[in-house]
Design brief:
Blueprint (H helix, E strand, L loop, with lengths): L1 H28 L4 E4 L4 E5 L4 E3 L2 E4 L3 E9 L2 E9 L4 E3 L7 E3 L5 E3 L8 E9 L4 E11 L2 H58 L1
Parallel strand pairs: 2-11
Antiparallel strand pairs: 1-4, 3-9, 5-6, 5-10, 6-7, 8-9, 10-11
Length: 200
């Protein structure tokens, strides 16, 4: 009873070894593959800030990296480059993009139109691709809102000052008018009294 079990174990070890050797041979014959890691898939930025769209790719062969921006304004190609070779930056981003060997890019001086989805594609020379997405939200700078409030407050203060001056002038004119009217009434009353005295 023991011998057949040992025979099965022996055959299982042989089959396992052959399978492992075949898998290793297949892995050596098949050119690499590519993997991509996106450590920060969501980025919040303010206007005029510089942002780093950080990724890290791994592949055995030479890779081509391509970045695209998709927003409500449409799809724009940002940059494409081959590791260790040429870099092709779109004219729209010419002075705003820096590329890094690990596949990351830095985008300088972001604006509201830079909000949206950033798609990165890493293409290995043997046809394997890896994809990643980063969502960027861009917000107005807070002090701009405060600046608007300060300007509005100054405008309202100026209008208030003008209205106060106008009311003061109206009040002053009213007092002068009342004084003149009172003076005329007093003068006419005095004249009437004088006339009555003369008649008497």
């Amino acid at each position: 009873l023991m011998r057949p079990l040992q025979g099965c174990r022996g055959r299982g070890v042989v089959v396992g070894t052959v399978t492992l050797c075949l898998a290793a041979g297949w892995a050596l014959q098949t050119p690499g593959g590519v993997s991509l890691v996106v450590p920060q898939p969501n980025i919040n930025a303010t206007v005029a800030q510089n942002i780093l769209l950080s990724v890290e790719y791994f592949c055995r062969g030479v890779a081509t990296i391509e970045w695209k921006h998709v927003s409500s304004w449409g799809t724009t190609s940002i940059v494409e480059w081959r590791s260790g070779n040429y870099v092709n930056i779109s004219m729209v981003y010419k002075d705003r993009v820096t590329t890094f060997e690990n596949g990351s890019i830095q985008l300088r001086n972001v604006g509201m139109r830079d909000a949206g989805y950033y798609f990165v594609t890493v293409m290995e020379e043997h046809g394997t691709n890896a994809y990643g997405t980063i969502v960027v939200n861009v917000y107005e700078i807070i002090y701009e809102d405060l600046h608007f409030v300060a300007v509005l407050f100054a405008f309202l203060a100026a209008v208030s000052a003008i209205l106060i001056c106008f009311m003061w002038l109206c009040n002053k004119s009213l007092h002068l008018f009342q004084k003149k009217t009172t003076h005329k009434l007093t003068a006419s009353t005095t004249e009437e009294i004088e006339l009555e005295t003369i008649e008497c």
